[in-house]
Amino acid sequence: MIISEYPIQVRYAETDQMGVVYHANYVIWMELGRTSLIEKLGFRYADMEEQGVVSPVTGLQVKYKSPVKYGETPLIKTWIEHYDGLRVTYGYEVVKENGDVALSATSDHVCVKKDGFRPISIKKKFPNWHQAYVDATKEE
């Protein structure tokens, strides 16, 4: 299984009055991790969008376990949890510098045509992307 690791330097603006990262910012970090994974596999969302295809989030599951604070540099770990040629579930962990898992999450996605949001088959429309996803989910 291929796992992307993306470090985040927590900025003051991402925290609340207690210096703890505001919960919605983790979703932004998940997007950074997802984009990093896709780039690690050799692709870019922008290339897909240029062909009139977008990949909206259809589901989100988040478990907050330990707070991340201003000044810390957690690592966003991202992998493909499930892929069936049409739908993708990405898995995430936000890991603090001391090794504690601050968050575990998944996000579900489907690729759709930009005009009309009609679902498309990644396997048919983007065969190279499809094969990279299949390969990325294999256990080593």
Automatic annotation (TrEMBL):
Q: Which GO terms describe its molecular function?
A: fatty acyl-CoA hydrolase activity
This protein's superkingdom?
Bacteria
CDD domains (UniProt xref): 4HBT
**Entry-linked Pfam families:** 4HBT_2
Q: Which keywords appear in this protein's UniProt record, sorted alphabetically?
A: Hydrolase
The family annotation for this protein states:
Belongs to the 4-hydroxybenzoyl-CoA thioesterase family.
- NCBIfam families associated with the record: YbgC/FadM family acyl-CoA thioesterase
Q: Write the protein's name.
A: Acyl-CoA thioesterase
What species was this sequence derived from? Mangrovibacillus cuniculi
